[in-house]
């Protein structure tokens, strides 16, 4: 059974029409689908994601307009190779992340992935069902990571703020730099990505996100 069918994000979001987010993927309606976090937290692997993609189709949700399957925090242990490129656990993700994106696409769905604007994702700071792996954010690797996501075939990227908040980063500056990285990645691959700013509203993203992103959060997680 499809776990926790709901809107794609875990809090109130604001959706911007495509003309206000030139650096992000052009979209004409609010993106709807399924996200792994509320049901599984960090205990995810290819089997979990494949089964949810299957269920999105067989339940009729895909036909109703729910088209995104978003892999949230927990997909990555924070490891990089000597060149700083993301490496993944192939026991959890046979064929790597491009293979799971291909599987999602084979169902006529779109694939989403997760990172943080800071050095660490939220799984480093909160219980998730796996160890607190350090280095699961994109800080210091923006161009490298967003190009990798695009090359893997992802259509959507959620960029969280746990690391950014812990480090006291300026959200507008960080997310603008990320938007620029996404634009450069798209220029190289030809694959735009929907860009979701997951800053929770503390630094008033409604004042700056419309020019750089497709959607942005205005509050904390609804689970709380």
From TrEMBL:
A GO molecular-function annotation: alpha-galactosidase activity
Reactions catalysed according to its record: Hydrolysis of terminal, non-reducing alpha-D-galactose residues in alpha-D-galactosides, including galactose oligosaccharides, galactomannans and galactolipids
Class of enzymatic activity (EC top level): hydrolase
Keyword terms: Disulfide bond, Glycosidase, Hydrolase, Signal
A GO biological process held by the record: carbohydrate metabolic process
EC number assigned by the record: 3.2.1.22
Superkingdom, natural source: Bacteria
Record keyword Membrane present: no
Pfam families linked: Melibiase_2 (PF16499)
Signal sequence segment: 1-21
Keyword rRNA-binding: no
Entry protein name: Alpha-galactosidase
Organism: Amycolatopsis mediterranei (strain S699)
């Amino acid at each position: 059974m499809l776990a926790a069918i709901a809107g794609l994000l875990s809090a109130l979001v604001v959706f911007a029409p495509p003309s206000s987010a030139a650096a992000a993927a052009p979209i004409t309606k609010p993106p709807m689908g399924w996200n792994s976090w509320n049901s599984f937290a960090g205990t995810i692997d290819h089997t979990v994601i494949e089964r949810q993609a299957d269920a999105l189709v067989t339940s009729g949700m895909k036909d109703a307009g729910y088209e995104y399957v978003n892999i949230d925090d927990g997909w990555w242990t924070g490891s990089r190779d000597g060149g700083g490129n993301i490496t993944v656990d192939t026991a959890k993700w046979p064929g790597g992340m491009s293979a799971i994106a291909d599987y999602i696409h084979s169902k006529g769905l779109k694939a989403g992935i997760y990172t943080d604007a800071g050095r660490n994702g939220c799984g480093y700071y909160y219980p998730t069902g796996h160890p607190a792996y350090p280095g699961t954010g994109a800080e210091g690797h923006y161009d490298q990571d967003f190009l990798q996501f695009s090359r893997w075939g992802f259509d959507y990227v959620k960029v969280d703020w746990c690391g950014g908040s812990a480090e006291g980063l300026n959200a507008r500056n960080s997310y603008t730099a990320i938007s620029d990285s996404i634009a450069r990645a798209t220029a190289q691959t030809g694959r735009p990505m929907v860009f979701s700013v997951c800053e929770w509203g503390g630094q008033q993203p409604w004042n700056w996100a419309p020019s750089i992103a497709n959607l942005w959060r205005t509050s904390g997680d609804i689970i709380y």
